[in-house]
Amino acid sequence: MIRSFGISNVGRVRSNNEDAYANRPELNLFVVADGMGGAQAGERASQLTVQTVVDQVTQVGQEAGLEALIRGAERANANVRWEASQHPELAGMGTTLVAVIVRPPKAYIVNVGDSRAYRQGRGGLEQVTTDHSWVNEIGKSLGLTDEQLKVHPYRNVLTKAVGAEDEIQVEGFEIELEPDDVLLLCSDGLHGVTGDGPLVDIMGSDGSLEYKCEALIDTTLAYGAPDNVTAVLVENTAEDDGSASDETADV
Q: Which end of the chain has fewer CB atoms at under 10 Å, N or C?
């Protein structure tokens, strides 16, 4: 049995929400995308990307795994590029992407950009995905401190994004899930604001998925939430009865 819960919040500064997510336990599929671009372009890019991944996994069906996620990301890239080419006001739009298909005892994960997947297990909280960002790929190798990176002019620059180039390199992961492991998918509006400490504390606490998800959002809001913030939690309950339940909230 898989349990899941998701929330997306516009934050305290932005006027519209350019994050999008899918909480689809009937497909064993969970997705977060963080759009970018002027006007409504970022919002359109993230929504289109999430829908394309959902459509791809739906088409493949119960056999969908890592290959279907990679193919979905590639199709999303093509769709975003085509949409931008048809509408001048959407030129330059793009989005991050993190998506997971959970089939206990396995989870298949892809990411593009700096939206992340974490796993909370017996060993604590660990980041599964790798950020495709200037900070992670270049800034850290230059020996810059966390404090310097937080204010660096390139701190928000991505090295990969859905829609940025004609071809896209999608990073994929296959991991083992233990009973009661919880996956967190989130946009950088969460992890980039709270830092690791609050994530570790909240994800390691007792309580339902709804409680933890709301605590993650509320903590980010308390830190000022300068960006949209989205979190999706997925729990492997280790009850392999083929059923699933879901809850969803948008604020």
A: C
